[in-house]
Amino acid sequence: MIQIKHKYTEKVLKEINSETLSRADLSGAKLSRADLSGANLSGADLSGANLIGANLIGADLSGADLSEANLRGANLSEANLRGADLVFCRMDKEVFKQITEGWFEWKITD
Question: Which H or E element spans position 98?
């Protein structure tokens, strides 16, 4: 059994009857502010998931379906997004910078 908890309150947001999150179906899940740092989410279905403010530092999201997911305010630093589907996902400038900073140098101004 895996419990996904709110990163500040420790409230359980989702319980999954599995040993791993890899290839898990989390489509449409409400995981805002979840602490998923270092989690193996490779191949997971996160399509349409609410990941606002989620901690995904160092998470393995390779091959994950993040289409139409809400990534606003999420921390994706050092996350593996190789082959992840990001089509139509929602993100702010900071998240976009985290995803693309390996491609070119960024400077965000308001």
Answer: helix 93-100
